[in-house]
């Protein structure tokens, strides 16, 4: 689904003036360029052009097209089109996004992440309700307790949570919404990382076989290229995994003394990393998914095929991913 994607953005959510552009979408290609996909189907494939090439397809666009082009160019350098990074971009452009369902993960994805979310919801529930927490499974369960048929019980639950968090009664629904959303983003990105890292390891094993081939052993330049790719992927993977471990430490510290101020600090920390984490994961998943699709299994492809794929599909943009991860790892240091 597009709204759960890191590399696709439906342009219907943007305030574009031309209906033809609203039907298109932004796509990150395997070289991590932002492309405008004008059409896509199983028969004709994908019709992608750079933003700067659009005038050739809309020669009579006029003022509406020029205004849309200015807006679209602002997305050229956005590293990922996940909903969290996109929200930040739209806020910076002063485009209203309040309650925009297109900028939330799909219901199916939220359900898929339910188990991961328990890591974040149960500490809050247990902190506020103690033994009662056994009957509450998620943040919606907390809201359900507030709707208790007994007004006194509902009010007591509200006051208990407000006192614990140091906030006003009327602020609890907004706090729960923010709490759920920020940790859902963390669960979403962590899920992608955990699914991508094993594929990277498989790819590196596949590439190690290539380095043992006669084709590479007789060409030091090619071997050096492969060694650099291996080192870069290992460094990037280790660095972004370390960032998630840092998030874990910060959230564990927060749960030892849950209050609104400390949650604000955790939220600001995680939000500050959204775009770099999203961009790095977007780049890694695009390349690894393309590898899996191209070779189907980790034993496929002769040395020349492997070498050409790595040189043309994995290498381009890898320095960009590495630089983005380097910059991301420096946030809040």
From TrEMBL:
Protein name, entry field: Uncharacterized protein
Organism: Hwanghaeella grinnelliae
């Amino acid at each position: 689904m597009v709204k759960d994607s890191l590399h696709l953005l439906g342009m219907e959510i943007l305030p574009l003036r031309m209906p033809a552009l609203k039907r298109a979408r932004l796509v990150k290609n395997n070289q991590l360029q932002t492309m405008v996909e004008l059409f896509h189907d199983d028969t004709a494939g994908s019709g992608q052009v750079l933003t700067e090439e659009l005038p050739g397809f809309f020669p009579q666009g006029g003022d509406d097209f020029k205004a849309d082009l200015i807006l679209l160019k602002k997305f050229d350098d956005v590293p990922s089109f996940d909903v969290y990074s996109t929200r930040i971009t739209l806020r910076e452009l002063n485009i209203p996004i309040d309650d925009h369902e297109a900028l939330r993960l799909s219901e199916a994805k939220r359900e898929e992440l339910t188990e991961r979310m328990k890591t974040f919801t149960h500490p809050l529930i247990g902190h506020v309700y103690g033994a009662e927490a056994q009957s509450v499974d998620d943040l919606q369960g907390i809201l359900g307790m507030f709707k208790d048929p007994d007004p006194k019980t509902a009010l007591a639950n509200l006051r208990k949570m407000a006192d614990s968090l140091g906030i006003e009664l009327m602020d609890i629904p907004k706090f729960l919404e923010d709490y759920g959303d920020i940790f859902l983003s963390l669960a979403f990105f962590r899920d992608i990382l955990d699914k991508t890292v094993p594929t990277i390891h498989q790819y590196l094993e596949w590439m190690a076989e290539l380095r043992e081939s006669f084709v590479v052993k007789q060409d030091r330049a090619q071997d050096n290229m492969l060694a650099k790719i291996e080192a870069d992927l290992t460094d990037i993977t280790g660095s972004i995994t370390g960032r998630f471990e840092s998030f874990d430490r910060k959230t564990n510290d927060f749960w030892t003394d849950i209050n609104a101020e400390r949650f604000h600090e955790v939220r600001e920390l995680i939000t500050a990393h959204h775009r770099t984490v999203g961009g790095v994961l977007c780049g890694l998943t695009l390349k690894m998914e393309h590898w899996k699709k191209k070779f189907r299994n980790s034993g496929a492809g002769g040395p020349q095929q492997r070498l050409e794929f790595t040189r043309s599909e994995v290498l381009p943009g890898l320095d960009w991913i590495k630089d983005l991860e380097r910059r991301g790892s420096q946030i809040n240091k």
